[in-house]
Design brief:
The chain is of the alpha+beta class. The two termini are about 15 Å apart. It has a two-stranded antiparallel ribbon. Helix 1 runs parallel beside helix 4. The protein has 4 helices and 2 strands.
Amino acid sequence: MQKGVSKVFLRMITGIQIRAAMGVLNWSVRKLAEESGLGTTVLTELIKTDGVKANAKYETLKKVHDTLNSALSVFGIALVPDRVLDVVNSQAEPKGR
């Protein structure tokens, strides 16, 4: 890995992953809403999309991902990040290194 570059795992989650996780957990949209603190309308929109909903907020996807991942961990199942990005560190490297 280059100096100043780090890997960032985005907690993106697809509609297919959400539906699959809900199936394993036997959760309804209402149950996922209760556990994540999100509204059923927002969740229904995410679930309808096979991929990542284009205009979905990162914070919303993160809440869904983290909620489902936490519940699935009891069964030894983990959701894998959808994307990995190289992010350049914006802070200058200290001189003399």
